[in-house]
Amino acid sequence: MVTFQEIIRRLDEYWAAQGCAILQGYDVEVGAGTMHPATTLRCLGPESWNVAYVQPSRRPADGRYTRNPMRNQRYYQYQVVMKPSPDNIVDLYMESLNAIGFDTKKNDIRLVEDDWESQAAGAAGVGWEVWVDGTEVTQFTFFQQMGGYDCDPVCAEITYGPERLCLMLNNQNSFWTDLQWNEAMSYKDTEYDLEMQHNVYNFEVASTEMLLQVFDLYEAESKRVIETPVFWDEELDILTTREASEKKGALVYPALDLALKCSHIFNILDARGAISVTERAAYINRIRGRIRACCGKYLEKFKVSAPAS
Amino acid sequence: MPQLLLELGMEELPASFVERSFQQLLGEVISRLDEEAISYGVGEAIGTPRRLIIRVENVSDTQPDRTAQVRGPALKAAYAEDGSPTKALEGFCRGQGVSLDSLSKDETYVWATKLTPGKPTIEVLPAVLEEAIRALTFDKSMRWGANRMRFARPIRWILASFGGMHVPFSVETVSSGLKSVGHRFNSPESFEASNWDALVAELRSRQVEPDPEIRRNRILEGAQKMATGTPELTEALVEENVYLTEWPDALEGEFKSEYLSLPEPVLVTAMARHERFFPVRNPAGKITNRFISIRNGGEVSTVSRGNAWVLNARFNDAKFFFDEDSHFSMDDFLARTDRMLFQEKLGSVRKRADRLSSLAGLLSNGNEDAKRAGLYMKADLSTGLVSELASLQGIIGGEYARRAGWSDDIVHAISVQYHPERAENDIARSVIAADQLDKLAGYLGLGLAPSGSSDPYGLRRAATVLIELAWNWPSTQSWLPSFRKALAQFEGIALDCEAAESSLGELFAGRYKALVSDARYDLLEAAMLEQDREELLNPNAVRARLAALQLGAQDPALVQAATRPLNIVAAAKSKGISIGSLNEADLDSASGSDLANAARNLVARSSPEELIEQIRNLVPAINGFFDTTMVMVDDLKVRDARLALLDFVGQKLLLAGDWTKVVIE
After folding, report:
1. Nearest chain A alpha carbon to B150
2. Where are the domains of chain B?
3. Predicted ipTM?
4. Which of A189, A266, B191, B387 could form a disulfide linkage to A185, CB 3.0–4.6 angstroms apart?
5. Could you give the dihedral angle defined by the CA atoms of residues B342, B344, B348 and B351, in that order, rounded to the nearest 10 degrees?
């Protein structure tokens, strides 16, 4: 039997060997590893960027009070980003399946067309779902756009679902009765109470009135922060709100955190059914506006500035 | 003569792209050979998700010499008065590389005959092949790595051979060679091949069947051989599997029989749509817990176990919702739609249910089952199973109505709401019509008519459903009165009824054109009677008129005669003359009285053949009248009586359509 932490350890080891820095998950609630700034921001711009990390991800609407054996509102994604996408990235990925315990000569592995889009992030990519014997185990995407900006060069994003990989490798059926975190502790031991309580909170207890207000506040704050002028103090080598020099910066990361807050709040409201179909599009547009602003400011740092006279 | 062979290797293409792409690749290569004047023989194209392969036989190994006439300076500028060449002419000759004595002249210019010697084909091919690859177009393309190029998926290798010789070129970072690779997992090492037969034979020995037709047969035969029952080999799904595999092999699997308690459409959707498996039916036609999957690699036992695992997981997921839903009644589901919005201004899905019920009642002469089906037809929107499997809306509602013990008619009506062609009785048709009419009334009443290519609410589809419903249900009259009833259901919601009716007319006109695209345009225009909204919104009448006009239009004399009364009345009306009703006393024309009698005998709504026959019989009377009688006479009383007669005749002629729109060929 392979444990949940063992799967993650094998993925870390494999991708580290391919030159990826093993980062940690981001500390703001996100719906997917894509919203970690290590992907959202770093997929933009000309620099090369090779990282992998586990991202705890929250999707309130997917909560099933633990009664569905393979779905929960907080779960883990294993995310790999390589920019520019290496020519042999598909081959590298296939080897990772062997590294975690599949056998590409025994399992039937397929790349099935599946393009990815996130309206809230203004992001789009082209790629596949990877199937192992008919089960989707990975989303494999060549990012084309983020925040409405073209990705150039293009990165490959590989997202695994480690819980499901683990069940498949062990021929098990449920997160809650079968999955072991390590030899001593089960996934249920570590996750069950959190999952159950968040289900009740998301679906029954969360104050929609408060959340609607907080959405507005975070949105306004994200806007204020991204528009706040900051400058490099060349002498102290720090960023400051003082007009220390002509060299401008921007508070991209704080503004993105605030935009991510909006996104998560929206997801809870959506799970509660508190947002109608037409309002939905308007909220998604508002989130996209904030993320786009962050991406735009982030990209400014790569613009060639006019040579000083 | 040599064979040209090209294999383009890529990461897996979307299944629906493969066939179009290898066909296009062959076409692009051939059109460029034509441009280069290089002769060739037969061509062939095949492929898999990972490779497009083409061959062109008997390609000439040299390009023929080509000559072209190049215009030089005008005669006046080319020669001095003494006839000696000017500097301009000498310069032209140098530039073109021709001698002075090879020039020819016409009345104004000097011409050089320029010879372009043919190159060896092997030198022309690199550009031909590279451009052909770059010319491929896809429904959706992408960039990868640091490349600028857009393509369906990243290119990995190119094999290019001409008579066994390597044709060297590059596309972005990939250089051509004489190497290919086999099956992604079973035979990934590269090998060399420089002609079609060798490549195909090598690929087959490396678990790649490059020919889609052979893969298709293998899938069909394998599925039939393996299945314990009858596999449901729908064409689209077979096709998809052909292009999802390089080395297809059918195997039968089995899921837990407890899931057979799920509704059949749920089982079929999970197998066929989500997993691309073929469901297997028993001799009685019922779904069994067997399925056929088409593997592309791996070991049978491992793949089979994995396939069963994923289906069991999917069915377990569906069963969870199915069982959850079983704790609730249809009334509970209906009540929950109160929280679901149909449209911001049009209110909730629950409110809509009341409108659908009463409208279905009005359309079915008060049938109680129709009212009930209308009330509950959208209730399944609030079920767990539909939230998971949205494509089964309606079908799930029907299943749950059956589970609740409701009548077959109600179950049927709810189940077929998205499939008008499957409607078997008037109850189902009333319910389907109510759904479409309510949607059209609400959205068009709010001014949300579709424009251009954008139809976000599916209103064109709704109009199509109403038209086809009427065609399959010949007793249907004009939809206009029903549409007005639908508009009237929106109590307390401000709708612009006149604008809605007008938009509906435009929608119908557009739909007729799309639905009977093989009919003559002028005849369809004539048959629609667009100015008469009630007639325009009556699909059966439009169709009958179109049939009559198609018969009548074959007889130009008939069209001419039928057009005259309509034209004269229209001209009079445009001058502001008001047309009264038939008044034979003041006609003062014997042939006019004959015409009145003949027209009176024409009875409405017979078959198209009979109608045209009757109009044909009217022709001598129409011509007789015009031959003997002047219409626009000074005596206004007589004039008006004659116009009234023509209007009376015109109304009869309009039973077949507006003849003035018919073009005489």
Report:
1. A144
2. 4-62+121-205, 66-116, 212-325, 338-384+415-515, 544-661
3. 0.93
4. A189
5. -100
